[in-house]
Prior knowledge:
This protein has about 400 residues and is of the alpha/beta class. About 30% of the residues lie in helices and about 25% in strands. The chain is built from 12 helices and 14 strands. The strands form 2 sheets. It has a 7-stranded mixed beta sheet with strand order 2-3-1-4-7-6-5. A hairpin with a 2-residue loop joins strand 2 and strand 3. Helix 2 crosses helix 7 and helix 3 packs parallel to helix 4. It is elongated, with a radius of gyration of 23 Å. It starts with a strand and ends in a 6-residue tail after the last helix.
Amino acid sequence: MSEMIYIAPCHFGLEAVLKREITDLGYRVTQVEDGRVKFAGDGFAVARANLNLRCTERVLLEVGEFKALSFDELFEETKKIPWEEYLPENAKFWVSKVSSIKSVLHSPSDVQSIMKKAMVERMKAHTGISWFPEDGASYPLRVAIRKDIVTVGLDTTGASLHKRGYRVSPVIAPISETLAASLIALTPWKPDRILVDPFCGSGTIPIEAAMIAKRIAPGMNRRFLAEEWGTVLPRGSFKKAREEAKSNVIQNPVRPDIQGYDIDDRAVRFARENAEAAGVAGLIHFQRRAVKDLSHPGKYGFIITNPPYGERLADREALPGLYKQIGEAYERLDSWSMYLISSYRNAERDIGRKASKNRKIYNGMLESYVYQYLGPKPPGRSGLEQHRGEHQ
């Protein structure tokens, strides 16, 4: 298996960001679809992708893709996949998740049951074993059916990649680490530019920015399912990938100007604890401060933030005033850019100006928009760099 196809799922609307990240890692993107990017790589790519990709939820190894209009077809096509090349005889294997969009086969439980039976039949025929103990490493499958095309992927990751391991102190409704990283990647922000999050919550956006500044691989301090596999991957892949990631860390970076504010004392305390766990506490200034008091003497900075949406009924009445304060604070920051993600439909109206551009994304099932307010480029910066996020 010199070259394999991998599937990296992402938030709907952020495929271009993930595509660029995969390309920057050195892999060839083969297909971009709603909510996922496919790419080609060798066995070592499993480890490198899991450790280094910031904007995907997991890395799947594609083991089959076929059309199925009936459960009989699903069984037969699943049985054709050479499972014996992927699964050891003691593997624990099952279909962990099924999604179906615009397809005849739309019952997840039926798909799971039928595909499991087909896998067992294939393994029986090619191993001569009639009963499998399933007491070894886990090989969960994820299946996506789109317009009757069934894509089958082995989950190499396990717990979602947004679980970096540093969020020791969460707050209510935090932005996920992968979404925070994607939001930063949408912008032309670089570590030598100012970044302020006035609604930092548990500190996720500033922490992700600081990890980028220090070149800390997001998955460097956690484990992955594929590390337990005795098949498919080259021996020592994850050890080699971790050594590579450690060598890329900037030990003593020039301190960037990254700041996180929140009106809640407890959130600020939690953010500091999380930054400490992530190894970037010295790179971020956290402070209790309301958005109405936001100010900064520097120019050409960035506000990158995830303000309240009004999910709770009690908060909704405060939203117009809050977003008005966001607009007034931004107005005072001469030459700055602002990238704001929100599902609040009156965001632009209450901010008091129309965004240069907005992008629809789905945060889980919640339809949201990234409102992009583009400031002028600083002297000496190319227009291409300044407006990189505008064309994603």
